[in-house]
Every structure is written in structure tokens, then in C-alpha cells.
């Protein structure tokens, strides 16, 4: 049996899901509609025409998820809370059924010895708030802060660890700039103010959560190691531009209290006095979602964008093809680079890491997902190398505990440690589930 990676220091172990991707039951319990409901209801928006119904059906089968988490020996389980289950219209009185659901989940996790680690916002923006401007307008910061307070009032007596916002970069870049994800806006660089409103919402929500007893609060940023296609000054400039837009716009305000310069981009952030102090309140940890590096090159003469994203030469790929190259050393280099760029970097949490590969819709036993094991093994060894180089990593999270509804890709991409038959919602642990269980056990020995 192949040896599992053993890290230089002990860390916590986790796996993750997100509400819209696993819960189903979108018409039950008073749940409202989000931008993702509108997206899947629009023909052509999801590649296989699928909806999130019933998906893994975690709204009814949460005990199955808790059993999988406990069976792995997880320290923590990362799940998200649906804003529209708690406040169907994004504001106002809470929905008791929604809060009751998350309260049961929290209680069952604690009873199983797994620490709940919820995310307040994983992309499911309520439709009324979107129609009022969504993340483009400052008013949403107050709505999100109220929502955080509502959730904390119910769960804060038992939940001490929180993520506020998941991947604000993807909401800004894919949701508002190029429209490849909900809400499907195409604002290009005019989408950048949505980054400020998400970060400010994080900062204000963090203060509210701490008032309710939270011990650790952070935002889960998606980060990528940016590589140049060629060793030229023009490609170096493209790397700097993309690194600023994808990474530094979202990290610098938290870790330095200021936005980076954006050469050639004429967009000003809607900063009001006091905003940056709120955003840069020292975080308890810095969370990184990492999947792949991004290779860029200088754009053509008629391209107004200061970079062009291209395939990474020589890299194997996941089920997403050239869009998701597999280069584990890129995670090591990203982590080491963060320590060099941010001398006061707090402890790092890897809040998502995982890969999708083609797998059958049904199975009679464990799927031998050797490609996923190799992906996770390589990235854990890269984390170990970063730790040996001086990076403090306190936690690692696999995306995902379950196969789920993969946004615009529907059910064509499977990330889970456990296979889900979406016709029956039956869960079957894959080989990677057993492998991850051995990793956790070996690193505790």
C-alpha cells in the first residue's frame, strides 16, 4: 500500500460542501430564491440542463453527511448556510425552518465529535437583493451584516469558527465581470467595486460574529499562482496584472489595509472613511482556496485586457481540461510567496483543495479514483514543503465531501470523496475517502 503524506507539523483536517450544491429542497421550509435559482431556470445556462434538485438532498439527509464526516475522522466540517433559507428575501425576519435545519446540523456534528465550520455566504445571493443592485451597491453590506447577526444569534452559542464570504474573487470576476457564473453580469473592470463591498461585508460581519462569541473568523479567498507563458518583459507585465486582479485585490486590503495599484485599469474603489480599517481588522487566520495555477501571456494589440489566459504547457489536467491544470508545486510556491509578500501573515487555512475527474453516474461499490488521490497527495506534499520552508499552515480542507451540483457544469463534474447517485441521493465512499481517512489517522499517530 502506497505511503500517505506525513506533514512536518500537526494540523486540523476538514472537508467541505456548499448549501446550493448539496441541499436540494429549494421549495421547502420557506426558502427564497437566489441568483443561482434564476441561473438554473434559464435554458442553456447549465451545460447538461440540470438543476440542483434533488442533488445529494442534504436538507433531508444531513445525518448521512455527518456520518461521512465522522467516519473520516475529520476535525472540522465546512458547510455553508443558505442566505435564502434564513432570510428568504435577503432581509427582515428570519425563517424558523431554515435556522432549525442548521441548528440540527450543528448539534449532530458536535455530538459526532466534528467541529462545525460554517460559511455565511457561498454565492447564493437572494433575488430581491440582486434586483436592488447586489454586490455593486453599498447597501448590501448592511443587509449582510444583519444576516450575520441573525445567524449568530441562533448558532453562536455552539459555533466558534466561521467563514464569512467564499471566493469573492470568483463572484467579482466570473459573476460580475465576464458573466460565466451567476448573476451573469458582464461589467468587465467596472465589476471591481463588488470586491470592495464583499470585503467590507466580511469585515463588518466578522465584528458581529465576534460579539456573539466567535473565536476565529476569516474570508475564504480563491488564489492562484500566476505563471508567464514566456520569459519576456511583456509576459511579466501580464503576470503582474493578473496577479493584482485575481489575488492582490482580495488579499492586500485584509493583510495590508490598502488596495494594490492596477496599472492600465481606470477603476476606483468606492471607499468611505473607515472602510479599510474594518476590512483590515487583524484576521484570526487567512484562508486559501487553491485548485490550479494560471498561465498568462501578453495580449494582442486589439485586446483591452492586459493579459490573456492560456493553457499551462506540459501540465496534466482535471475533468475541466486546460482550464484546470495540475501543478502541485504551484501551491507550495504560492504559500511561500505569501509569506514573503505579507510578513504579518496569520496562520493559513487551506479552505478548499480538490479535483474533478470523469466518473460514472451510478456505482455498485467504491470507485477507484486514483487520479483524485494523486492530485490530493501531490498537493499535501506541496503543503508539507511550504511548511518546511516556514509557512504556518494550521488546517487542510478537501473539496468536496460529496459529489454535488457543480454550478454551471451541473452534474458533469464530480469532486467528491463520496460518490452520489443523483437519482437516489445514495452515497458511496470512493477509494479517495479511505485514502483521506488513512492520511488523517497517520498524521495523528
From TrEMBL:
The record lists the catalysed reaction(s) as:
Hydrolysis of terminal, non-reducing beta-D-glucosyl residues with release of beta-D-glucose
Which keywords fit this entry according to its UniProt record?
Carbohydrate metabolism, Cellulose degradation, Glycosidase, Hydrolase, Polysaccharide degradation
Entry GO MF terms:
beta-glucosidase activity
The enzyme's E.C. designation: 3.2.1.21
The UniProt entry annotates the active site at 352 (nucleophile)
Q: Which domain of life is it from?
A: Bacteria
InterPro entries with a match to the protein in the record: GH, Glyco_hydro_1, Glyco_hydro_1_AS, Glyco_hydro_1_beta-glucosidase
- Give the enzyme's main class according to its UniProt record, as a single word: hydrolase
The similarity annotation says:
Belongs to the glycosyl hydrolase 1 family.
What is the name of the protein in this document? Beta-glucosidase
Q: Which organism is it from?
A: Gordonia liuliyuniae
The record lists the lineage as: Bacteria, Bacillati, Actinomycetota, Actinomycetes, Mycobacteriales
Amino acid at each position: 500500500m502506497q505511503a500517505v503524506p506525513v506533514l512536518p507539523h500537526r494540523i486540523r483536517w476538514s472537508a467541505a460542501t456548499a448549501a446550493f450544491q448539496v441541499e436540494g429542497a429549494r421549495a421547502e421550509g420557506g426558502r427564497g430564491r437566489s441568483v443561482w435559482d434564476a441561473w438554473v431556470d434559464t435554458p442553456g445556462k447549465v451545460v447538461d440542463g440540470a438543476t440542483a434538485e434533488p442533488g445529494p438532498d442534504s436538507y433531508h439527509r444531513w445525518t448521512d453527511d455527518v456520518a461521512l464526516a465522522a467516519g473520516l475522522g475529520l476535525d472540522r466540517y465546512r458547510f455553508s448556510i443558505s442566505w435564502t433559507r434564513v432570510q428568504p428575501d435577503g432581509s427582515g425576519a428570519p425563517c424558523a425552518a431554515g435556522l432549525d435545519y442548521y441548528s440540527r446540523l450543528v448539534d449532530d456534528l458536535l455530538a459526532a465529535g466534528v467541529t462545525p465550520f460554517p460559511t455565511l455566504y457561498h454565492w447564493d445571493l437572494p433575488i430581491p437583493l440582486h434586483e436592488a443592485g447586489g454586490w455593486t451597491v453599498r447597501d448590501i453590506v448592511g443587509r449582510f451584516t444583519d444576516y450575520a447577526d441573525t445567524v449568530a444569534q441562533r448558532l453562536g452559542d455552539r459555533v466558534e469558527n466561521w467563514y464569512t464570504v467564499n471566493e469573492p474573487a470568483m463572484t467579482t470576476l466570473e459573476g460580475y465581470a465576464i458573466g460565466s457564473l451567476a448573476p451573469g453580469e458582464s461589467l468587465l473592470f467596472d465589476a471591481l467595486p463588488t470586491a470592495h463591498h464583499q470585503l467590507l461585508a466580511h469585515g463588518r460581519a466578522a465584528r458581529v460574529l465576534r460579539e456573539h462569541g466567535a473565536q476565529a473568523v476569516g474570508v475564504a479567498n480563491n488564489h492562484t499562482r500566476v505563471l508567464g507563458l514566456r520569459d519576456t518583459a511583456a509576459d511579466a507585465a501580464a503576470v503582474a496584472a493578473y496577479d493584482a486582479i485575481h489575488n492582490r485585490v482580495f488579499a492586500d486590503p485584509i493583510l495590508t489595509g490598502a488596495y494594490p495599484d492596477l496599472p492600465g485599469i481606470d477603476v476606483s474603489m468606492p471607499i468611505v472613511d473607515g472602510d479599510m480599517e474594518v476590512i483590515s481588522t487583524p484576521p484570526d487566520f487567512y484562508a486559501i482556496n487553491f485548485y490550479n495555477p494560471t498561465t498568462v501571456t501578453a495580449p494582442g494589440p486589439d485586446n483591452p485586457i492586459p493579459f490573456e489566459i492560456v493553457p499551462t504547457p506540459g501540465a496534466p489536467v482535471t475533468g475541466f481540461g486546460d482550464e484546470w491544470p495540475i501543478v502541485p508545486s504551484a501551491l507550495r510556491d504560492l504559500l511561500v510567496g505569501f509569506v514573503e509578500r505579507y510578513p504579518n501573515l496569520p496562520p493559513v487555512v487551506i479552505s478548499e483543495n480538490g479535483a474533478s475527474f470523469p466518473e460514472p453516474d451510478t456505482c455498485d461499490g467504491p470507485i477507484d479514483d486514483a487520479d483524485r488521490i494523486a492530485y490530493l497527495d501531490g498537493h499535501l506534499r506541496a503543503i508539507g514543503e511550504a511548511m518546511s520552508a516556514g509557512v504556518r499552515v494550521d488546517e487542510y480542507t478537501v473539496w468536496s465531501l460529496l459529489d454535488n451540483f457543480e454550478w454551471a457544469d451541473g452534474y458533469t463534474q464530480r469532486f467528491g470523496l463520496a460518490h452520489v447517485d443523483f437519482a437516489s441521493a445514495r452515497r458511496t465512499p470512493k477509494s479517495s475517502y479511505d485514502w483521506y481517512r488513512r492520511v488523517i489517522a497517520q498524521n495523528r499517530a
